[in-house]
Request: fold
Amino acid sequence: MKPATESILTVAEIVRDSAAMNEAALARDFDEARFRAQLVIAKADAAGLEDIVLAGARVLDRLGPSGSAPRQNYGEAMLGLAHALDAIGFDPL
Reply:
């Protein structure tokens, strides 16, 4: 597979995981949202997308530890991740 194609697919996976994270949070399944945020961070780190890693880490921080209620401003952090994704040319869904 060409590097450009691989990069596009990686970003598409990150966008998909980000959308699933948002859907899980809307359903109040915060452990699933945390899991998806971890996937976003790991995939973005492997792809060298530092701004996405940082935005994902902020989401994970705001969601808090497993089994707990999320901290304040977790929605704002999710929006920040969407903006970071938008900045690299992909719709945040």
